[in-house]
Design a protein that fits this description.
By secondary structure, the protein is α/β, with parallel strands linked by helices. The protein has a single domain (7-248), classed as Rossmann fold (3-Layer(aba) Sandwich), CATH 3.40.50.720. Helices cover 43% and strands 14% of the residues. It contains 7 helices and 7 strands. A 7-stranded parallel β-sheet has the order 3-2-1-4-5-6-7, sandwiched between helices. The protein binds NADP nicotinamide-adenine-dinucleotide phosphate.
């Protein structure tokens, strides 16, 4: 059991990558806090799964982009559960628009959830981690942090900010025994990629991936487990690329 006795807050854990990280952590003895925002989503199914291995696990609804909501929720969680040892800053949204047509409202929404939201959670949780002199923080970025794709300039801006959020936080929090790292997923099969339902496009994408398959949430959860466990105790301020070798290619991506 790699995470026995630990408590992890996973943002955006009602589906996709976050839900899989929650399941994986719970099977390793971790109490999991499942954050979500939309009550219509299958958050109760995820909680039911997680509780099979970790009965103290809970769900909590808050919007990571609202700093006051985040602070109040984190304070309440720490009071009820005794602390948070692991934070996975996973929640995020992807919207597409041509750069010249991008609405300011959409630019602000993507930056405030993906970048500011990750900062809000990191700041609130790290204050408690400092007192305990222990913490593992994992930020989920994207290959968009260094590879430009068409029609997603706002998403790319948000994810490249995550890179420096990780590095600055790792530098400032290291003396308190807090590790801060980033996972950089490639193309992973979730609700986000459902937007690209075109079979032909997916086939073309697979051709560009060295390992010849689209990634799964389990692939990302494996990296998260490593970074959350003591196996990565001397690793901080860096990133793990989980892209099946997609970015090894310099070819033009077909979208
Ligand atoms: P997903 O299936 O769309 O899930 C997104 C999650 O984020 C949901 O649980 C959603 O909650 C939550 N969320 C959205 N806005 C929120 C907010 N304001 N406050 C709290 N929670 C919020 O996406 P995914 O593919 O698993 O992506 C997870 C992370 O991986 C994201 O940061 C994404 O950018 C990154 N990523 C994904 C891929 C990929 O190919 N899938 C590739 C690179 C990086 P509700 O269900 O309640 O709406």
């Amino acid at each position: 059991m790699l995470l026995k006795g630990h408590t992890a807050l996973i943002t955006g854990a009602s589906r996709g990558i976050g839900a899989e990280i929650a399941r994986r952590f719970s099977r390793q003895g971790c109490t999991v806090i499942i954050n979500y925002i939309d009550d219509k989503d299958p958050v109760d199914d995820v909680l039911e799964d997680v509780k099979k291995s970790s009965s103290n696990s809970v769900k909590i609804r808050f919007d990571i982009s609202k700093q006051e909501d985040v602070e109040n929720s984190v304070n309440k969680l720490v009071e009820e559960l005794g602390g948070i040892d692991i934070l996975v800053n996973n929640a995020g949204i992807l919207k597409s628009s041509k750069l010249t047509e991008l609405k300011h409202k959409d630019l602000k929404e993507v930056l405030s959830i993906n970048l500011e939201g990750s900062f809000n959670c990191l700041q609130a949780v790290s204050r408690y981690m400092i007192r305990k002199k222990y913490g593992k923080i994992i930020n989920i970025s994207s290959i968009s942090q260094f590879t430009p794709f068409f029609n997603t300039v706002h998403y790319a801006m948000s994810k490249s900010g995550i890179k420096m959020l990780t590095r600055c936080a790792a530098l400032e929090l290291g003396e308190f025994n807090i590790n801060v790292n980033t996972i950089v997923p490639g193309i992973i099969k979730t609700g986000i990629t459902d937007d690209y339902k075109d079979e032909n496009l997916m086939k073309k994408m697979e051709e560009l991936i060295a390992l010849k398959r689209i990634g799964s949430p389990e692939d990302v959860a494996s990296a998260a487990l490593f970074l959350a466990s003591s196996l990565s105790d001397y690793i901080t301020g860096t990133e793990i690329l989980v892209d099946g070798g997609f970015t090894l290619f310099k070819n033009k991506v077909p979208y």
